[in-house]
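Hi Y.,

Following your request, here is the sequence exactly as I used it, all 147 residues.
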Amino acid sequence: MNLLNAIDISASGLSAERTRLNIASMNLANAHVTRTLDGGPYRAKSVIFTSVPYRDGNAVDGPFDKTLATALREVRVSEIVDDPEPFKEVYDPANPDADKRGMVKLPNVNVMEQMVDIMTASRAYEAGVTAIDTAKAMTMKALEIAK
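Below is the corresponding structure, written out as tokens. Let me know if you'd prefer a different format.
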């Protein structure tokens, strides 16, 4: 395995975590939106990750290389889905979005859950950057040794 493959795999994780961070931030920003363009309250979104086999395009020669090539996986965002949780309802007859009973539907955004998602995505992003830095340092050492 070449060290650039390690950087590619880590970069796929960085991209997926960036998407997760963006979605969690969007959910927090819309946590109090009671009327969207669709007419109802904002519905929280979630990111679904999947792992896919890593393909670097290089020819695989030996049995070790073939085994390693099947074990390497990248992280991808497979889809962004709406959260199926029901909307919260509060009694607020003065709100322009209140129904006949005076109930207002609020977004189904769980603020604590979104904050945990942001913290987890941030830590995973930091881990990916550390992995890339380590691979880069190893490449520089290998070039140093080759002199």
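The longest strand covers residues 73-82.

Thanks again,
Q.
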